[in-house]
Amino acid sequence: METLLKNETSLRNELLSSAFTLSDMEIFVFPDLLYSLVLANIMSPVIWRWRDDSWFAGIENKPPMQRINRVKQYIMNNYVFNLDLETWGLTTKERELRRFKDVISEDILKKSNALFGYEGDRYYFDIDIRRHFGLDRYDSSVIPYWKTETVEAMNAFVNRPGFNTGAGECVSLSALYAAALFLVAEIPLENIFLIATPLHSQNFIDIDRGVLTNNRRIVTKNMWFNGTSLSTKARRAIENEEITIVSHITGYVHTVYDTATMDVDFYTTFKRRLQEFLTADLNPQIISNFLRKEIDFRSCFQYGHRINGRTMFIPLERIYRYEHTSSNSFSTDSRSALLKEIDIDEFSLSPIPNRILLNDFEEFIKRNRGLTIEEFVKKAKRELAVKKCLKTDVLFDSIERFLKTVPRFPDRQKDKDFRPTDSLRIDTGMSREEIYSIIVKNREIPVAGLSLYSYRDMNNIDWMPFIKAAVERNPVSYGALKGKDIQDIGRVLEGLSDVSIYEGNRLSQPDEVWNFKTGDGIEKALVIANVLYNNTMENCKTRARKGEIKLIIDPPDVAVYDGQSEIARFSTRKSIKKEIKLSIPLQL
């Protein structure tokens, strides 16, 4: 990654510690982090156990689209979308800019990050994004962390009040989908592309005519053009926002960095296949779908329908009003059934003035298939009474945009210097142990090494970035416990469940313990360390005072020391033996 950072040690510490918190900001600055989470989920035993669920019985015998739909429904049943301010807490623009000032400029962030002034999607800009996300009650410098969750943290949401299932934000869901489609639906990783925009994250699956994941749902090409409210929401990001990151098993392409690490052939294929997915031919059904989406243009049209041997006419908006509560559709083979549901007094014996007859418009489309949209518009204006609609020019412009979305790829303004790195060869059919061994063996590949951090593989990583993240970016547990007596905090933590959300020698961050009200003794000790560290830093304005927090992990005991004094003790089920010294202020 190209960088202006002078202190490479500082960069490494920020990068590695970011693998534990995985905020949207951190992923934007360090794009390898996005795929590191996918690999962490692939290594996780959680998704491997999905394969034993009766829901997926016989899935291996089904065609790819049925396998994808099976995974989709499992995710729909077991996870909800969650994007709030309370779960992972708040930070400030100034703090994040200080962290990354030598990596990326504020001007670039304003063009790429909604919380720093990005206005790409007019929908969110028009509704006031800070008010939309509940930030209007804070100073304008306050922004959310919006950390991306591992599958373990997503599952643990069931422990939070108000949740009956797992949960996660859009990046979490896209990483979950990528891992699950590979492990359960056996879609090769080479066919899965993660797409990040400033306000959203989704995946493009290069199977059949293509599939987009969108939060918990999937969108096929037919669904992209069906004009429903769900497809309108799914279209919003790619229609309105720049694609900032494309992430793949072979690497990434980033809108800011000149160097791209993805295999150029895969990237070229991705661009071509996504553009094909986003483009449709003009046909009568597409026009009905278009009018379902674009409510304002319905007033341009009427429809003629034979009733009792006579042609009667009805404004199009009345048809869609009935469709809204019907199981039948105006743009499918069930059109006749839908029209039978409409009260006869909704129809008129005479044509409605200044409206295009949709029947003629559809017949004209059938007769002129194969024309480009430009050729079609010219001919329609000559041969159809389209001038009856005062919005004719805007109408055809909107139809063209509906038929062809032009994505703003991260290389659209400047060609990238493709320098692919070594990539992991992980295939469907491999065991979890084989995949884990390949990742550990190839840890010098940046994304592989980072994935061991995102996976919390404490036996194979440097602990200090984990500690750095624990005391610098876990504001929720600190905010809830600051100012309390350490002994009282210890009693509160002892009252929580003692089961870690991570299996084996993997560890939660303090806010995961606090949010989900469960944690091993090592993890509870880290909550104490977080509170003690930040109490000291907050009360020491000049930061002149020096001190040391020490954790001695000697199973089954974990002890926390403030200087030479033991202040808390917990029990652990982890088989980790380690002594950690944490300086105040933090020095790595």
Considering the chains and any ligands shown, give keywords for the structure:
588 residues, alpha+beta, C8orf32 fold, 3 domains, disordered N terminus
Describe this structure in words.
The protein is α+β, with helices and mostly antiparallel strands and 588 residues long. The chain has 3 domains: 8-279 and 407-450, no CATH class; 284-403, no CATH class; 459-584, Roll (C8orf32 fold), CATH 3.10.620. Helix content is 43%, strand content 15%. The chain contains 27 helices and 19 strands. The strands form 6 sheets. The protein has a 6-stranded antiparallel β-sheet, with helices on both faces. Strand 5 and strand 6 (200-205) form a beta hairpin. It is elongated. The chain starts with 7 loop residues before the first helix and ends with a strand. Mean pLDDT is 91; it is low at 1-6.
Please provide a brief summary of the model.
With 588 residues, the protein is α+β, with helices and mostly antiparallel strands. The chain has 27 helices and 19 strands.
Q: What number is the mean pLDDT?
A: 91
β content, as a range? 5-15%
What's the β-strand tally? 19
Q: If strands are numbered along the chain, what order do they take across the biggest sheet? A: 8-7-6-5-9-10
Q: Can you summarize the main beta sheet? A: 6 strands, antiparallel
What is the helix tally? 27
As a whole number of angstroms, the C-alpha radius of gyration is 28 Å
Q: How far apart are the first and last residues' alpha carbons, in Å?
A: 22 Å
Number of spatially distinct domains? 3
Structural category: alpha+beta
